[in-house]
Amino acid sequence: MGETHNTATAATPTISGDLMSSHFQFSDHNSLPEPDVQILTSSGLRIPAHTGILASVSPVLENIIDRLHKHHSSEKIIPILGVPCDAVSLFIQFLYSSRCSEEELEKYGIHLLALSHVYLVPQLKHICSKAVGQRLTVENVVDVLQLARLCDSPDLYVKCMKMLYDNFKAVEKTEGWKFMQENDPFLELEILKFIDEAESRKKRTRRQREEQRLFMELSEAMECLEHICTEGCTTVGPCDLGPSNKRRGPCNKFSTCEGLQLLIKHFALCKNRVNGKCSRCKRMGQLLRLHSSICDQTDSCRVPLCRQLKLKMQRERKGDETLWNLLVKKVASARVMSSLSLPKRKREEPRETIHDHGIRNFRK
Ligand SMILES: [Zn+2]
Ligand SMILES: [Zn+2]
Ligand SMILES: [Zn+2]
Predict the structure, then answer these.
(1) In the 8-state DSSP scheme, what is residue 171?
(2) What is this model's ipTM?
(3) Residue 2 pLDDT > 80, yes or no?
(4) What's the alpha-carbon Rg for the chain, to the nearest Å?
(5) What is the mean pLDDT of the chain?
(6) Structural domains of the chain, ranges and CATH numbers in brackets
(7) Ligand 3 centroid to 46 CA: how many Å?
(8) Whole-number pLDDT of residue 110
(9) Minimum-distance ligand to the CA of 300?
(10) pLDDT by residue (tens digit) across 52-91?
(11) Å from CA of 44 to ligand 1 middle
């Protein structure tokens, strides 16, 4: 409430000149009848207004006005207390004009949000929620969150929670947070719960993405293994094909294929393959076993050991069988996904990631 309003001479000041000129320039002000009600603010300022207009915009004010009529009060006064008197002026101004400037929202958005909620003015509430949400800061987010909860403004509430989650360390140090901790332990609990859930949601998604990437990599490795053993690729080919028949150019999965070719060459020559001391050979063995589990053309398949491994696995059904079966299923479905349902551009994306991470598994 500015000094200017208190300079009015009457004991109960009415709206003063500058307020009238800056806030109350309603386009049809002159065509309106005499004001028939006064809004009383905390500072004692009285804002003249029209019951017809107030009642038509706010059902709560309509009720209050009805009651005033019933009691035949000679002097119709509606007190709107507890907020700065400029905010009340702006509120009344909005009821007339349905307009509010950015500057006004910047200064009184929070108060207008509260007023629009209390007096049920949804258009203003919508504008204020948005404006306050755009001006969230680490300093005010806790206060705004409390307001959003009080005013039942879900969009703003979620926005505050996200801001809290993203800046928790900084928010924890603010006065607003400390005050809330002391005075509203339930809200603190609510916030911590939200953060906890968001955190585990993030972890879950990350894990799923990593898993999916692994399955895609394995699925691609399976494709490469088959095509290396069937038609050959750059440096490795089936033993029964002469060099002239070997495919020369790199295939379209070359980053994976190359790693696999190196691994196959190593596997063929490694002295530690049989004694189980070589981790690269072990990995090759797993890839062959995985192929054999997925392969549905064992009889004609040219991948080494495909048939033998299948028979071996059928003979020994071991404890980790369910896990293995799950892996086989996931790799098989990743393969279907990559070859059928994904559009071409998407299908090529995972290759980047394989280049970054997966291929190292084959080369180590
Ligand atoms: Zn290839
Ligand atoms: Zn080896
Ligand atoms: Zn096979």
Answers:
(1) H
(2) 0.93
(3) no
(4) 37
(5) 82
(6) 3-135 (3.30.710.10), 211-363 (1.20.1020.10)
(7) 89
(8) 95
(9) 3
(10) 999 999 999 999 999 988 887 778 899 999 999 999 999 9
(11) 84
